């Protein structure tokens, strides 16, 4: 008897189920292969090499597809051909972008440190990178420094005006913070070279205030007016809500408290403190829900979604980060759609390819990587993990499975990328995101309503803003509590090798997870033993936690003396003073991984600053020795000269008014201008420098006493533009009481480090100096207490870590 033919419904089910469960990775694999080729190859290699590489990739792809040995290329050959085609496309795009940017004299002028006049357009809202007088739990009283991206259209340098098209990063003072997005400006700046692979051609330090020559059009003006009204409507909210609500809705993070930003970074919640793909998804989902309630026909809903998306992006400003969030939000909406979920991975792969063609430098952006990988985790793992979790929950709670799976999937795939940013693996991020997730939607949706209502009236919108404030305060509370939780994170090597190791471990855990779970149920004691062994390996050790990722300056613990290291590259640095003991400075440089020293600066010739010079030279390449022109004491001066001569290192003197550029570091010399015979001649002959590195400025005051300090103050006040804004102070003469407090008043930032020996015979640092620093609100770090002291520049500001405190399990943090 023949079996009954399947019904039409059964046939459709059999056809649909496999398609729903199958993940199409055909376009994802080429993107994953091409991405690192662009990030670590095309953007660093010469343009000619990039063009040649794209030509070869195109030729090989065509040969693979065009060979006639088979009627049709096999799937593996098609995948290889598609991969090469994507690589060629992105290489051509990168080469084209780089060719346009390198046209003109801008790069050459930057390499020479030239002062030029630029005319261009502001590409992004000014962003505060350091704050003056930041208070824990509150906002900064006045931002001291702003970073502004400018698309330069014309440059006037060396007497010639040239039309260009290249982005420049301007690091300016408060006057640059008032610029609006898409303002046309004209400014006089000093150019400096950018890092290889950076998304800007040069870094600029302004020589004055910018001149606004044009404003955005009426549409952007209207958006700016709505943003201003929205800020006014949320101005009366508590500090945390006043910062978070505008951040979630319009991407304005200027009012977010510094410690809250750090707490959200520590707990893996930083994506909630700015416009991201999840915010866009929520807004679009709310719009689609509103269409359903209002009875809008399905064929009109895509047009409504597009209009909402364009309006949201315009309100938040169509900067690259917002455009990226909009694209990822659309892909995320696909992931939430039951009928189109199988199209999610190809859509994500296509979106990433298009965005990298539009802006190849996104390949080197942590934000873009996190957004893309988080969306991929949602597409690949949220549904199957949600079903697996749901099966293990009570029947009434089974629907919570997908909700619980979303933060787990996002954290699993994003952790290897986050590690280089914070140097640790968060153990509480999943819990924090799970607790905060239900609060994000009401904050965002009500916040958008407040922005729209503020057009009609700021007063009424201010009352509605409390509806967004309450869940925002909940998000902030979750971040702060979880950040303070014990054992909330495990320190991890933040290098590329450490991130790769974590990525491999994560992939193995995902692949073997079901099998491990099954085996642990059969042999629980074996599972406990494995967990104990892994925990033992996870105990932090010195190589894992020191140096901290992203360090820019380290005050080495060299005893009673000075020895500072400024980072100029992955294994390179500038050494300012060498301390009294060669072994101590050599050990500090080894811990920091410094294999080559571009420049050694010896501020003066006292033994506690120069006797350690042989330790700097031990096994390292040293480019140049810069010294004080006051050759006193003569014995130490002569010995230093002999040491440099034996090592064949050129020696030059520094004088006030000189400028130095070493890689990404720029320095201004403020002293000595002459010999001072009052007080200690060597101390008052110390070289005084301001160092500009990674967007911050550090004042290195040597061992100057009150006479030389008064001269430095006079020069700083006579040339405030060149002096700029000081973020970090290396306190003069180990905290001696022989000082001029007016120099402290010239420091805007409230971070200070004292290089001093434990239990020294000089009584350093003097109680009066510590009192003067405390009166002015300085946060003081000392090498005799904390060991090596590192300054790390993060998105939240400057973080200070002491090596001894780190190894003991605590990390003091600065604003």
TrEMBL record:
GO terms for cellular component: plasma membrane. It is a multi-pass membrane protein. Pfam families: Competence (PF03772), Lactamase_B (PF00753). InterPro entries: ComA-like_MBL, ComEC_N, Competence_DNA_uptake, Metallo-B-lactamas, RibonucZ/Hydroxyglut_hydro. The keyword Transport does not apply. It is found in: Cell membrane. Keywords: Cell membrane, Membrane, Transmembrane, Transmembrane helix. The chain crosses the membrane at residues 23-42, 48-66, 78-96, 272-293, 300-316, 368-386, 398-419, 425-453, 460-479, 499-517, 524-546. Residues 560-733 form the Metallo-beta-lactamase domain. NCBIfam families: ComEC_N-term. This is Metallo-beta-lactamase domain-containing protein. It comes from Intrasporangium oryzae NRRL B-24470.
């Amino acid at each position: 008897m023949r079996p009954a033919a399947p019904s039409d419904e059964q046939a459709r089910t059999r056809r649909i189920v496999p398609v729903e469960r199958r993940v199409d990775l055909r376009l994802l694999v080429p993107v994953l292969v091409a991405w690192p080729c662009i990030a670590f190859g095309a953007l660093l290699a010469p343009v000619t090499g990039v063009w040649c590489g794209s030509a070869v990739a195109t030729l090989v792809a065509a040969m693979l597809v065009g060979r006639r040995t088979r009627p049709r290329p096999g799937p593996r050959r098609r995948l290889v051909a598609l991969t090469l085609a994507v690589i060629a496309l992105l290489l051509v795009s990168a080469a084209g972008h780089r060719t346009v940017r390198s046209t003109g004299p801008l790069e050459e002028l930057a390499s020479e440190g030239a002062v030029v006049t630029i005319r261009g357009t502001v590409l992004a809202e000014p962003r505060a990178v350091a704050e003056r007088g930041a208070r824990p739990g509150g906002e900064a009283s006045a931002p001291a420094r702003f970073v502004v991206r400018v698309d330069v259209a014309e440059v006037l340098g060396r007497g010639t005006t040239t039309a260009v098209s290249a982005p420049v990063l301007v690091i300016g003072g408060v006057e640059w913070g008032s610029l609006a997005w898409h303002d046309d400006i004209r400014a006089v700046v000093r150019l400096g070279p950018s890092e290889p692979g950076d998304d800007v051609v040069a870094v600029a330090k302004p020589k004055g205030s910018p001149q606004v020559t044009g404003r955005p059009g009426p549409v952007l003006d209207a958006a700016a007016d709505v943003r201003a009204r929205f800020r006014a409507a949320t101005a009366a909210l508590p500090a945390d809500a006043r910062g978070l609500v505008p951040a979630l809705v319009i991407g304005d993070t200027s009012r977010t408290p510094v410690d809250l930003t750090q707490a959200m970074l520590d707990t893996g919640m930083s994506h909630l403190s700015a416009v991201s793909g999840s915010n866009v998804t929520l807004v679009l989902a709310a719009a689609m829900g509103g269409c359903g309630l209002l009875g809008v026909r399905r064929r009109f809903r895509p047009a409504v979604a597009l209009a909402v998306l364009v309006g949201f992006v315009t309100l938040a400003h169509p900067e690259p980060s917002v455009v990226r969030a909009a694209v990822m939000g659309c892909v995320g909406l696909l992931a939430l759609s039951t009928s189109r979920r199988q199209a999610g991975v190809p859509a994500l792969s296509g979106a990433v390819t298009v965005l990298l063609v539009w802006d190849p430098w996104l390949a080197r952006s942590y934000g873009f990587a996190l957004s893309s990988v988080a969306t991929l985790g949602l597409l690949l793992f949220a549904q199957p993990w949600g079903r697996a979790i749901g099966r293990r929950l009570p029947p009434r709670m089974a629907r919570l499975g997908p909700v619980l799976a979303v933060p787990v999937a996002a954290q699993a795939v994003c952790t290897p990328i986050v590690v280089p940013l914070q140097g640790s693996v968060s153990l509480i991020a999943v819990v924090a995101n799970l607790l905060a997730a239900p609060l994000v939607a009401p904050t965002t949706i009500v916040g958008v309503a407040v922005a729209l209502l503020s057009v009609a009236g700021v007063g009424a919108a201010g009352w509605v803003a409390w509806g967004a404030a309450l869940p925002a305060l909940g998000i902030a509370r979750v971040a702060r509590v979880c950040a303070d939780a014990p054992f909330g994170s495990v320190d991890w090597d933040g290098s590329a090798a450490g991130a790769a190791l974590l990525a491999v471990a994560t992939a193995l855990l995902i692949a073997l997870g079901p099998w491990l779970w099954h085996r642990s149920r059969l042999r629980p004691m074996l599972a406990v033993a494995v967990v104990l062994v892994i925990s033992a390996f996870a105990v932090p050790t010195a190589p894992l936690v020191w140096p901290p990722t992203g360090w820019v300056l380290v005050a080495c613990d060299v005893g009673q003396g000075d020895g500072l290291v400024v980072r100029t590259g992955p294994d390179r640095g500038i050494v300012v003073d060498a301390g009294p003991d060669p072994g101590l400075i050599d050990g500090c440089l080894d811990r920091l991984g410094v294999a080559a020293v571009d420049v050694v600066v010896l501020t003066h010739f006292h033994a506690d600053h120069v006797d350690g010079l042989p330790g700097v030279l031990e096994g390292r390449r040293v480019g140049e020795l810069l010294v004080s022109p006051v050759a006193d004491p003569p014995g130490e001066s002569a010995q230093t000269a002999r040491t440099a001569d034996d090592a064949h290192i050129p020696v030059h003197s520094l004088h006030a008014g000189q400028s130095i550029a070493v890689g990404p570091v720029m320095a201004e010399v403020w002293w000595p201008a002459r010999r001072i015979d009052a007080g200690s001649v060597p101390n008052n002959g110390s070289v005084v420098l301001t160092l500009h590195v990674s967007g911050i400025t550090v004042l290195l005051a040597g061992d100057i006493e009150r006479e030389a300090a008064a001269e430095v103050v006079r020069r700083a006040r006579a040339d405030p533009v060149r002096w700029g804004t000081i973020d970090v102070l290396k306190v003069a003469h180990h905290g001696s009481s022989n000082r001029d407090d007016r120099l402290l008043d010239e420091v805007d930032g409230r971070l200070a480090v004292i290089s001093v020996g434990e239990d020294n015979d000089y009584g350093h640092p003097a109680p009066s100096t510590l009192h003067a620093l405390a009166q002015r609100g300085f946060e003081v770090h000392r090498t005799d207490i904390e060991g090596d002291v590192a300054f790390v520049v993060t998105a939240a500001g400057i973080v200070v870590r002491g090596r001894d405190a780190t190894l003991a399990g605590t990390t003091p943090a600065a604003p």
